[in-house]
Design brief:
By secondary structure, the chain is α/β, with parallel strands linked by helices. It folds into two domains: 2-126 and 281-337, Quinone Oxidoreductase, Chain A, domain 1, CATH 3.90.180.10; 130-271, NAD(P)-binding Rossmann-like Domain (Rossmann fold), CATH 3.40.50.720. It is 31% helix and 26% strand. The protein has helices at 42-50, 120-125, 127-140, 164-175, 187-196, 209-216, 231-237, 259-264, 276-280, 283-301, 318-327, and strands spanning 2-6, 15-19, 30-40, 65-73, 85-89, 103-107, 111-113, 155-158, 179-184, 200-203, 222-227, 241-249, 268-271, 309-314, 333-337. Helix 3 crosses helix 4 (164-175) and helix 3 (127-140) packs across helix 10.
Length: 340
């Protein structure tokens, strides 16, 4: 099969299209998927630059997100049949083959049926960001169960609302009746997030997002903040969140983080790394993530959730896709299209 191999850590040029052996089913619960598209995520560019989680297993095929059609099934596969369209977030971190390729082998327990209303490109863009936003808002911050804070409202600050995770997080928050403010970098992105349901778009390059958030909440601060940026932004966010509020971040905390403000405000800090179940081999957690994708598929087909693809590239132009993602200011997602 054709696949994009990461030959060594480095710049995008280390991604090379090559012929490699087709993957084969080794366990009776696995399925062979003919991939039609693969999502491109920031984790892909990070692993390409610094090396994968398994540096002794090189070269590697990156790409956690995939969408395609089942070509073969193991002896004990019960949920899928040949011809089923599926999407999933599996592989691509260095140990198992990723989805920058024509075929992938995945355990059926970690796979979901593709939303019927989505193209393969849109479906491939969805898994990692859906799972990340769902786990952050619903599992970490328990938004589904009600905020149970001093305030009776559910007001949320989402950073980088026009991005891959952010544009999904806005919609998931609105599905639970929350009021959402979000940071964006341009008027065009402000229009984009308003169409997704955001109540307030904060142009962070022109406006102090902390003060804007406090003004929006009459000085109280939001009940929940979701950080997808990290660094100084994560640290500053504490002041925009009310006493006893929640902050969820998908990034590692900077050594200079202002933990004192969070402590004085008695805030709860949660970390969301959706790769943890895959990295640690947590079967039940991976099954939970597949269930998230099944639930999201229903919401997508009911027109309650949208996935925005900003740009597609052919598989052989994976390096160009990485360059675009690293340049920043991407609205939604970038996807690789995989031909027969």
């Amino acid at each position: 099969m054709k696949a994009v191999l990461m030959t060594a850590p480095g710049k995008p040029e280390v991604l090379k299209l090559q012929e490699v052996p087709d993957p084969t089913i080794e366990k009776d619960t696995e399925i062979l998927v003919r991939l039609h598209a693969a999502g491109v995520n920031p984790i892909d560019t990070k692993l390409r630059k610094r090396g994968t989680f398994y540096p002794d297993q090189m070269p590697a095929i990156l790409g956690c997100d995939g969408a395609g059609v089942v070509q073969a099934v193991g002896a004990n596969v019960r949920r899928f049949r040949v011809g089923d369209a599926v999407y999933f977030c599996q592989g691509g971190i260095g140990a198992k083959l990723g989805n920058y390729a024509q075929f992938a082998v995945v355990d059926e327990r970690f796979v979901a049926r593709k939303p019927e209303s989505l193209s393969f490109a849109e479906a491939a863009a969805a898994p990692l960001v859906l799972i990340t936003a769902w786990e952050a808002l619903y599992d970490r911050a328990r938004l589904r169960d009600g905020m149970n804070r001093i305030s009776t409202t559910n007001r949320i600050l989402i950073h980088a609302g026009a991005g891959g995770v952010g544009h999904v997080a806005i919609q998931l928050a609105k599905l639970q009746g929350a009021e959402v403010c979000t940071t964006v970098g341009s008027e065009e992105n402000a229009d984009f997030v308003r169409k997704l349901g955001a109540d307030l778009a904060i142009l962070y390059k022109q406006t102090d997002f902390v003060q804007a958030t406090l003004d929006w909440t009459q000085g109280e601060g939001v009940e929940l903040a979701f950080d997808t940026v990290g660094g100084e932004i994560f640290s500053k966010t504490f002041a925009a969140v009310q006493v006893y509020g929640d902050i969820v971040t998908i990034l590692e905390a900077d050594p200079a983080t202002d933990w004192k403000t969070a402590r004085l405000r008695n805030q709860r800090i949660s970390f969301e790394l959706m790769l943890t179940p895959m990295l640690q081999g947590l079967v039940e957690a991976q099954k939970h993530q597949a269930d998230i994708l099944e639930q999201c598929a229903r919401q997508i087909d009911e027109r309650k959730l949208k996935i925005h693809v900003s740009k597609t590239f052919p598989l052989e132009e994976a390096a160009a896709a990485h360059e675009m993602l690293e340049a920043g200011s991407i609205r939604g997602k970038i996807v690789l299209l995989i031909d027969d």
